[in-house]
Specification:
The protein has about 425 residues and is of the alpha/beta class. It is built from 12 helices and 25 strands. It has 2 domains: about 190 residues, FAD/NAD(P)-binding domain; about 150 residues, 3-Layer(bba) Sandwich (FAD/NAD(P)-binding domain), CATH 3.50.50. The longest helix is centred in the first third of the chain and has 20 residues. The chain starts with 5 loop residues before the first strand and ends in a 7-residue tail after the last helix. Bound molecules: flavin-adenine dinucleotide (FAD). The site of flavin-adenine dinucleotide has 32 residues, from α1, β2, β5, α6 and α9.
Length: about 425
């Protein structure tokens, strides 16, 4: 079954889709490109907090993979096994189990959210890793606020109105900022909910927020959140989560019905099944992104421990690195097919930025610190500049217009439930979900 003239990429995230687009149309005519991914779209994960906070629509943080490829083939499916000796993989698709043979295989399947990092979190905390997670959290937030209006018990109202975000890194800070803006902007539509009844707390077990950025920017983000009403608890380690509270290491109990956990990842189940060497849960790769002792297998993105020749460190699991690794691998695959030498992955970080709510951000660009509106505009401009990856001009234009519109108008408060007629007929007496 082996077909040495097919390059198969597993994973349609930042790494996989960038690589596919770099290779699409550039491969020798007798080579085929196949991209396999679980969903039919790629997700712009850094914008998930904005989708959660309803400042952008969910369709604006995803892009359909099929429209990104011109000559390459896309298979929607989950890869369940790889046989490196026979160079064949197995994936589960809509049509059942399918086997795909490859000449070169690229592992770009990212990592998964770790749900059980804190006792009780698997049952009671909400992860934020997929667009489905973002929409689920958004609906829960809207449900909590709608329920407060109907409850009379003050303690219950207080618990329902308290949203706790665990994690003071990029996603935690962005989530807290988006949530407070969302609650502030929707409250006017819930006249029976008082201003003091909605609260967001962010928990960070380290001395300050955003350790990835300079102390000055971390503190600027903290001040901005506090000014807007977020309670920032630094040095606060969450020990346990229940349906009604978060318990901190110092014994404090925070009453809350909603805990969003933005920390903790774990390797994709495929990593263990592949039996390859790993470094702290990520697949070990050589300097040119080839997997050692596995001819024809390469790995990039969050699932790979990529050595960065620029500073000798292992590349962090960020979109910025996933995209650069994909570009280096595209060059290395083309070089390999034409018998030329490959090159090392070597990348210098240009900057870092985070949006911390509507029209507020922090950024470090070539060592120049920025915060407030300029940093937020830069962040938005960066994602707009990423739009070439968004397929079709019509879609790009629509997103641009809607983003601009969203800067001046309140967040969308539609609690979209996919209730089907059958459910209404079958259980008319049941409370709405
Ligand atoms: C909430 C959030 C905010 C973030 N913010 C930032 C930020 O501001 N800046 C930044 O640089 N990074 C940010 N990141 C990190 C960034 O999103 C990741 O580093 C990046 O997505 C990694 O790209 P990837 O292609 O390796 O993995 P992913 O983007 O996770 O893609 C992996 C793909 O593989 C698919 N897949 C998995 N298993 C299989 C299988 N068995 N078969 C087929 N397909 C499979 C998945 O469905 C997915 O489509 C954020 C992440 C999150 C969750």
């Amino acid at each position: 079954m082996s077909n040495p003239r097919t390059i198969v990429i597993i994973g349609g995230g930042f790494a996989g889709t960038t690589l596919a687009r770099e290779l699409d149309g550039k491969l020798p005519p007798d080579w085929e490109l196949v991209l396999i991914s679980e969903e039919s779209y790629t997700t712009f994960n850094p914008m998930l907090p904005e989708a959660l906070g309803a400042s952008v629509f969910p369709e604006q943080v995803v892009a359909p993979i099929r429209q990104m490829l011109s000559r390459g083939r896309f298979i929607m499916g989950r890869v369940t096994a790889v046989d490196p000796a026979a160079k064949v993989l197995t994936c589960t698709t809509l049509a059942g189990e399918t086997r795909v043979a490859y000449g070169h295989l690229v592992l770009a399947f990212g990592n998964r959210a770790r749900l059980d990092l804190i006792p009780g979190s698997a049952e009671h905390a909400l992860p934020l890793k997929t667009v489905g997670d973002a929409m689920h959290i958004r609906n829960i937030v809207l449900r909590r606020v709608a329920r407060i209006e109907l409850e009379t018990h003050p303690a219950l109202r207080k618990r329902l109105g308290h949203f706790v975000v665990i994690g003071g890194g990029f996603s935690g800070v962005e989530t807290a900022g988006e949530l407070i803006d969302c609650l502030e902007s929707i409250r006017r539509y819930y006249p029976r909910v008082g201003a003091g009844e909605l609260k967001v707390t962010v928990l960070q077990d380290r001395p300050r927020l955003l350790l990835e950025l300079s102390e000055r920017l971390g503190r600027a983000a903290q001040r901005s959140l506090i000014r807007r009403g977020v309670e920032v608890r630094t040095g606060a380690k969450a020990l346990a989560v229940s349906a009604e509270a978060v318990t901190l290491a110092d014994g404090t109990m925070l009453d809350t019905a909603t805990v969003i956990c933005t920390i903790g990842t774990q390797p994709n189940a495929l990593v263990e099944r592949l039996g390859l060497a790993v470094e702290r849960g990520r697949i070990a790769v050589d300097a040119d992104l080839a997997v050692p002792l596995a001819p024809g297998v390469w790995a990039i993105g969050d699932c790979a421990a990529v050595p960065n020749a620029f500073d000798g460190t292992v590349a962090p699991p960020t979109a910025q690195f996933a995209v650069r690794e994909a570009r280096t691998l595209a060059a290395n695959l083309l070089a390999t097919l034409s018998g030329r030498p490959t090159r090392r992955f070597d990348y210098r970080v240009r900057g870092q930025m985070a949006a911390i709510g509507h029209r507020k951000g922090v950024a470090d660009l070539f060592g120049v610190p920025l915060w407030g509106l300029p940093a937020w505009l830069l962040w938005r401009a960066y994602y707009l500049s990423q739009m070439p990856k968004m397929p079709t001009f019509g879609r790009k234009l629509r997103i641009f217009v809607e983003w601009t519109w969203g800067m001046f108008f309140p967040n969308d408060i539609t609690h979209l439930r996919f209730t089907r007629s059958q459910e209404l007929a079958e259980a008319p007496q049941k409370a709405p979900r």
